[in-house]
Amino acid sequence: MASSIRVRATANGDITEVQALIQHPMDTGLVKDSKGELIPAHYIQQLKFECNGKDVFVADWGTAVSKDPYVKFSFKGAKKGDDLKISWTDNKGGSDTTTAKIA
Amino acid sequence: MKARIHLLLGSLSAALVAFVLTSPRVIAADKVDPVADAKAFQNFFFQKFPNVKHEDFVNGPYSMNEDMKRQWQEKEEFPPYEFALDAGKEMFATPFKNGKTYADCFPNGGIGIRQNYPYFDEKEGKVVTLELALNRCREANGEVPYSYVKDEMASLTAYMAYTSRGKLMDIKIPDDPRALAAFENGKRYFYTRRGQMNFSCASCHVQSPGERIRAEILAPALGILNAMPIYRSEWSGMGTTSRRFVTCNSQTRAVPLEPQADEYRDVEYFLSYVANGLPISGPGARP
Amino acid sequence: MTTTTGPLPTRRLILQGAAGVALLGLGNLPFGASLALAAANDKYPDEAFKQKNEADAIKALYGKTAEPSDKVKLDAPEIAENGGVVPISVTTSLDKVTSISFFVAENPFALAASYRIPDGTVAAVANRLKMAKTTNVTAIVEADGKLYSATKEVKVTVGGCGG
Amino acid sequence: MKRSLLLAMLLTLSLAPSARAANEADYKAAYAAAEVASKEAAGMRNQWTVTVSALAAAKKAADGGDFDRATAAAKEAEALAKASIFQATSEKDAWKAMEIR
């Protein structure tokens, strides 16, 4: 089943650029649905990137992060073929994880 | 209640007067000549926006405003329609209950053919759009048709558009009076004012592309369907051509027709034909 | 969207839950504030995300105030094409950066996102945030224990002709 | 130019509201007239959303027994429906004025 995480990690020289797009509603809990009831808050709280056994980037997110959230960053110390592990957990205890090869 | 009505009528007639004054000077012509119409249509935009590259018109509002174009290019690095695209690819690969797939319904397996849609079906005597052909394929294979305005249809057309990216729009009008009538009917719909706002498609997309309606920059009509289907941030979801037509109608306070009504099929035929020669850029991301 | 609830996440949730409760129990005792100071730990800064205004959120997250610095380059649009998806990014030439955070002043909750930057990671982040209305967006960089900030106003309004 | 002034005048004229308090009979008559006009507009595939909502408001007010508001809303619906009919008929040829040649 397709993971909810789309990631593109490309290494040039010692710097690896990482882009991630995650399929998630990121509901704020402040919005009403068509029947006028509040849609409960449902948003990713923590997104973690690990490479070679080390955290390379940790995101703590609030309700102001867009639906289908996107993030881009770069880090040093990895090379083509290394594994990049990505995992997120949301406020309802949901989570997903995937591993991508650095291109 | 009474004051509100007069206010409403005042704004209506003011909008009317404003738009009639600014309409370009035209001479009546009754013979339907799509080739001439397309040339005039394209030249109108090429002259109105001389420094916009011709193929850039298909990028809608982003061809009109640098700041918006920058925001768009940033989004295109990892576009929000990725999920619809993957879903469409998966749906194309998943056979129906009877074992057939979409590839069996379309020439070249449905790959790289979006630029020929919509086409005029001489057996039916009507315009057939990509969305209609997809649902007919589903029905022919015993499947329930998809809603024209929901994500499943958008995923399918997103994938088919993606396989045609860069190919030039290539709509044909056969030498058949019914095809010419459909083209003319589409043109008439495009220029006809409707809704309490009394706007036609042209009021926004011919007379004021590049200008703002509140936060949004209006797209030029030339190539406006080349990026379909589009992921709109405003809907925070995918939008098919049908969804765009229906919401545009309700924006002008006109009650929309049912999706894939003849008028919508014909106006899609008209708008696609006059964009012949411009590249397909779908699926697109829009405000 | 898969929602795997394997052993690891539940253990982390229990930990977070316990830590959260501990923090709440402490109320806003100075001890609670010093807990937030150790920002680099694994814990989700729940308290900071609950603050309505920016100043409280910064205090809850970092426990100190920031000073504007031209070494923090905040990139945000003049007019957001849509309040729901505003591309905002920050780069900085400061070194020994340990954390980068984004605040949207007049959002219901000012703190939008906070990123922990381990050493070896470039001090730059791009993301897409929601903005309730036209207001100031502030990026704060924690470098070598001090806070530096950059602010820019982003105009936000709805689109369409209001049918 | 002439066409648009005519449209504005016609709308204002057909809207002269009656002064005395409306009762159920007035409402029924006004609603029936509005429904005829609205059906004709729909038949021309040029219905306005505001006509539909005005009709709904009229029915809602009438159900609540407020026949003053119900009649006024029904009259407004009729005026809006007539305006959309006028728009459809006048646009039959007027659209050519905007066509790119």
Structure description:
The complex is a heterotetramer of chains A (103), B (287), C (163) and D (101). Chain A has 103 residues and is mostly beta strands. Chain A has strands spanning 5-12, 15-22, 44-51, 54-61, 70-76, 83-90, 95-101. Helices cover 0% and strands 52% of the residues of chain A. A 4-stranded antiparallel beta sheet of chain A has the order 4-3-6-7, with no helix packed on it. In chain A, strands 1-2-5 form a 3-stranded antiparallel beta sheet, with no helix packed on it. In chain A, strand 3 and strand 4 form a beta hairpin. The model of chain A has no long low-confidence stretch (mean pLDDT 94). Chain B is mainly α and 287 residues long. Chain B contains 10 helices and 7 strands. In chain B, the strands form 3 sheets. In chain B, strands 6-5-7 form a 3-stranded mixed beta sheet. A two-stranded antiparallel sheet of chain B has the order 1-2. In chain B, helix 4 packs across helix 6 (151-162) and helix 7 (177-191) packs across helix 10 (262-273). The relative contact order of chain B is 0.17. Mean pLDDT of chain B is 91; it is low at 23-28. Chain C has a domain at 65-158: Immunoglobulin-like, CATH 2.60.40. A 5-stranded mixed beta sheet of chain C has the order 1-8-7-4-5. Chain C is globular and about 50 Å long. Chain C starts with 6 loop residues before the first helix and ends in a 9-residue tail after the last strand. The A-C interface holds A 1, 3-4, 15, 23-24, 28, 30, 45-46, 54-67, 69-77, 89, 93-97 and C 1-5, 9-10, 12-13, 42, 44-45, 49, 84-86, 89, 104, 107-109, 111-118, 120-122, 124-131.
What labels would you give this structure?
heterotetramer, C: 163 residues, alpha+beta, Immunoglobulin-like, 26% helix, D: 101 residues, mainly alpha, 74% helix, elongated
> What class would the helix/strand composition of chain D place it in?
mainly alpha
Count of DSSP H/I helices of chain D: 4
CATH fold descriptor of the domain at 65-158 in chain C: Immunoglobulin-like
Q: Categorize the overall geometry of chain D.
A: elongated
Q: Give the distance, in angstroms, between the N- and C-terminal Cα atoms of chain D.
A: 21 Å
The count of helical stretches of chain C stands at 4
CATH top level of the domain at 65-158 in chain C is Mainly Beta
Strand content of chain D: under 5%
Mean pLDDT of chain C equals: 82
Task: Please mark out the parts of chain C with pLDDT under 50 across 5 or more consecutive residues, or reply none.
Answer: 1-7, 20-40
- Give the oligomeric state: heterotetramer
- Write down how many β-strands of chain D occur, each being a DSSP E stretch of 2 or more residues: 0
Structural class of chain C: alpha+beta
How many β-strand stretches of chain C? 8
- Most extensive chain contact? A-C, 39 and 40 residues
